[in-house]
């Protein structure tokens, strides 16, 4: 028998049911969970609906990092609910201002060899410390908190063999952008990425976490680094040396595919508008005028990233053409920089210091001016995510970002003519967990605070045997959860489904015509089922389960696509929406909004591995039989027919 990859070892150690064979379904025990506030309220409403008194995981943490500073009472109301429900259910509560979930979790709670499930798509950041860390919908995280195993398709593991070391001005971000250039941002469903080889030891834990963080943009299940002496040094510096163990793949581990990457040959890269997979060397596009630079997000706001920026900016001034915003990833990073003076260097150079939170990454202000270029160290640049229509957002390393801020033009940092600041990880980080609230002891009475903006957990009716539906919308490839359920200024309505659902597919609404929500509501109220038709990689991006819950509330019960991304596919099933797949992708173009869609004998037809026959009647009266497929297991089918997990509970 050949050796095992590290991912296989960790998953095998957690298997509760199923075979560890690529493509087969396994259920694994989840050791830790994390939620952020944008997904947390739903997850906890769902946990309450399940009647769970205390969470069953080794550790669960709720972070407040997404919606921290919007106008109106909705966000503080959510925070009060989350603080009280966490106290009652045995969950740590990280207060607003303590930092971004993935950065703080890495610093304070990540443990090599453990499994972590988070209701945020960038949870795989934890792979930087040797965890199998995965993003999922809030309901799956709620189930994990309830002690239920998590179901996944055992992944094919792509090995990335690193050699060499990064040259000056080339950063971890450039590594993952290069991997995105090789693997692309679609078509990687069912795979995981494992880094190995002699180059691994040249990367610190925060650098590794930058790389695993953007594994989410590859669409892979998780990305993992070994746990080695660098991991130990990081944990010791966090005062958690006892959490360390050495973890590595077997020397004869067999990978599905191996990609060789010589770190010493990499150059500064940029993901161009408007897809993280649209990658080019910075040198090829240098000189573009830039109006805004932002350094932060869960991808690039570690102490290393920001001290580098401060060292470059010290004694210099940000270009008058540029507004430079910096959001430290955690309170730990912010505090250490305030004590060592580097925060002052940033302020002196003309930076705008933002809260330790997601901030502009989730549309909380800092939209760029119309028709101008924004350069960001974030992980996503889907069109309009900045909050400015038809934005032009480039994703780069902090090194490229700071060079650009100095010159006012997209700049390859190697051309600056400045010595690259040296970096050594501190032997001791500043550890202060006073902004993480401990839960009340089990058995203590805790009042759960539920203000008027907190709604009810979503619930859905069973799917009928004869589906009489109407196509509400046809969209193309790479539709993200942001397209389906926009965040930004609307995100504050996330705890009230009827309110938030008004904005489903808002970007496809046409002026002077009925909105998607209005049309869907009419079809639902007429007793018919709403159908959404889409191309490849439907539901890329954020793990936002509202992209399933809110369409379900509007009566959407069938999604027909060429392919559906992993997390959205699970969320659709969890909320009673049937994900069907085209066998013949060319049919997509022949379907239009307003067409009638019918499936007879659905309950008998819907079997694992079996095709589903449907009938389409077009606006011109012509009819067509559709032979469709799906990837549902027997358990998924039972759930979707019952109207989702909460209805089946
Ligand atoms: Fe927050 Fe953006 Fe990361 S929203 S969790 S900083 S992807």
UniProtKB/TrEMBL annotation:
GO terms for molecular function: 4 iron, 4 sulfur cluster binding; aconitate hydratase activity; metal ion binding. SUPFAM superfamilies: Aconitase iron-sulfur domain, LeuD/IlvD-like. It is an enzyme of class 4 (lyase). GO terms for biological process: tricarboxylic acid cycle. Its EC number is 4.2.1.3. The keyword Iron applies. Pathway: Carbohydrate metabolism; tricarboxylic acid cycle; isocitrate from oxaloacetate: step 2/2. Residues 8-408 form the Aconitase/3-isopropylmalate dehydratase large subunit alpha/beta/alpha domain. Keywords: Iron, Iron-sulfur, Lyase, Metal-binding. Its cofactor is [4Fe-4S] cluster. It catalyses: citrate = D-threo-isocitrate. It comes from the Bacteria. GO terms for cellular component: cytosol. The keyword Nucleotidyltransferase does not apply. Residues 513-584 form the Aconitase A/isopropylmalate dehydratase small subunit swivel domain. PANTHER family: ACONITATE HYDRATASE B, ACONITATE HYDRATASE, MITOCHONDRIAL. NCBIfam families: acon_putative, PRK07229.1. This is Aconitate hydratase A.
